[in-house]
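Q: Could you write out the predicted structure for this multi-component system? I'm mainly interested in how the pieces pack against one another.
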Amino acid sequence: MTFFRPGPALLGSLAALVAAGPILAVAWLGVTSPWDDYLTHLASTRLAGYIANTLIVSATAMLLAGLIGTLAGWAIARLEFPGRGLLEWALALPLAVPAYVAAYGWLDLTQAAGPLQTPLRESGLAVLTSWMPVVRGPVGAGFVFAVVLYPYVYLIARQAFSEQHPDLQHAARTLGASNWQSAMRVTFPLVRPAVIAGLALVAMESIADFGAVAHLGAPTLTVGVVRAWAGAGSVADAARLAIVLAFFAYIAFALERQSRSRARYGQAQGQQRPTERHALSGWPAGLVSLACLLPILLGLVIPLARLGYLAVTEPVARGVVPALLNSLLVASITAVIAAALGLGAAYAIRSGTRLGAFSARLASLGYAAPGAVAAVGALVLFAGLQMALDGLWGGQFPILLSATAGALVFAYLSRFAAVAIAPSETALARVNARLDDAAMTLGASRRRIATEIHWPLIFTGIAIAALMVFVEVMKELPATMILRPFNTDTLAVIAHNYAADERLGQAALPSLILVLACLPAMILAARSQSSRRSV
Amino acid sequence: MTAPVLTIRGAEKALGGQPILKGVDLDLAPGCIMAVLGPSGAGKSTLLRVIAGLEKLDAGQLASGSQNWDGSSRFIPAQQRRIGFVFQDYALFPHLTVRDNIAFGLQELPREERAARTEELMQTVEISRLAGSYPHELSGGEQQRVALARALAPRPEIVLLDEPFSSLDRRLRSELRQQTIEAIKQSGAAALIVTHDADEAFETADQLALMEDGKIVQTGAPLDVYMRPASLTCARLLGDLNVLPARVKSGAIATPFGPIPSGKFADDTTVYVLVRPEALVQNGEGAECVVQSASVRQGRLLARVSSPDESIWLSDMPLSAGMEKGETVSLALDLEKISILPV
């Protein structure tokens, strides 16, 4: 692009500021504030446990999610079997289930007093119950994360498998490799960077989670951050723990970035050809269909069915409707703003200026900051701003900035702006710069190019970006816990509060409504992605 | 001669710190079709982008008729230049039908006129039956026609074509070339066609401009340029060539095929003798040469032969049976078709 566009560059820089601000604030506070007893005490007691749990949880989640996601991606991209078209997008749906909701369902189902173990004991088969695994502790949490987060691996692996040129396998076979060998030596090694990028996302999400690990008794560093703030009331301690947490998150983030840039080498070069799918029939076809159905059962159907049962049999929770409205409101507002920021950042990248690219990259860094870190950062920033304003005002400035919906949306944006940048960038990258040139030589103004060329071509991508942010905000728990205005609850918060009070029956309804509110958005996004064809 | 529709003087342009155009001078007469021929990297595409207003000149002047387009701190943006541009990859709008692609530049016309003009162009390039199709449903040749129709629709005075046939297969290429030229002639626009294919340049152009290393090195009627190249590089751009460096001695130049007159060159000057393959012809009194290899090209035979002094020459001869490796032929120079250039 030869011409300067101030708008997008500005939005891009804004996105960068919003995303990077909280992390920088956390780092600053963590380093400058005095150490006190709580942290020393923590370091000698719980810190090692937090770190061990963080590592076990994310390792288990990555292992299982990698297995499920890669195999499902391969089956959908390379095999033809009954239900493939439906499963192609349905396999992405567990992303609509927050990990804590799956955790409520699974723990209730498998615990000693649950519907699986109780009948066994009553019929005198108590011996068997000791063999039945209970979904709890760090490994149980890893399992829960795997069944709701595997779509990250699945989506990216499916794309990598279907972008592989079929001639690569043909070449391997003409060189004497068997089907099995060509799969092991060509097909799977080529998608490895893509799978690792997906796994890094799984790790980042499971490190950032609060609700599931708290419920399953596997407190990770995120739980530590929330406890330091909510229990001990120290922002400085929360900030310091947040630094440790951010460190782990950034390892995963760096891994993701590196793998993603390498993943490009796996893509087909030259003329694209539709991937050939191997048609299955008879019992192998049925078996593959069932196998691809299994992850959806584990991540979506089983936990939701259990919660649905609880919701109708147990007393009704109160405050669900206002909480639903709150959730929808903040999620919608954040989604629209994030989509605008994402679009701005994507334009900034496209403009090719160094500032543009840099600010967009900085903005995508925010995604690595777990919600708890973003929330603590937002607290610090807004408290600082409040103090500055009070000083200028010469007294209490009328608007209380911290603990308002503003701070909450700010923290969400800081965390999820990156979620919006990636689809916007992909969408805009598909708009060849020659199209702008062609439109210009045909006399079209900048405005007409934006509205009649860019917008129709990128609309789907931007809509997906907004939907993804919407779903993420609906599910978000720790940042909401820390920043929500007094007496204002979201669905996620009331579900968590009921669950924390051991009143799972009441937690069931808000959990269920939460997932049902996310599902339509997720279905739309998943379907449009699986039907998307390159232009 | 009428005033040129495009005048370029001393045009310079650097991209990413790399000088691409290094002082281009060019005149384009109204209605003239000019081919810009040059190797890749010569700056041909950049020249077109500068003319279209997609890039701004670093130095020099660019004017159309009496209107100054670029240079002397004046810059008319692409939108206002009204130039037709056929891009190498066509750049059709993927979300618009063929009809809407062609009508895109006709926004200022009333609805009926726009529809009529669109219809007319689709007939000219024979794509009326594709009016409702989307670009990705078209073949390469069909996309090229749409791109041409879209560029011609707003009746531009100048059309720029950037390697318009490069992605098409050979047979389709020459058919489309003819249709493209006819459509442009019919519209009355002047055209610049960028190509690296000499045959294409000869087939399409009224005027030929040779471009090398950011400069226009020779312009003229295609035949003139072919017969009297301004430099060795110009000559090489236009096709196969035998080059013999030699020194003038007593009014003659020694060649393996006998001495030739040195013309205007004085004794002891070093010259290049440029011999096209068709200037090395079979002749009973010529030098005995041995065929090294031979291939059929467009109904004739292009042979690599070794002359009596062992040097290798290309000769274009009529197709005849038995002209194989090891065969001996007698070859001589056709003095009419030889040019001599100073070193």
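A: Regarding packing and overall arrangement: Residues 242-342 of chain B form a domain with the OB fold (Dihydrolipoamide Acetyltransferase, E2P) fold (CATH 2.40.50.100).
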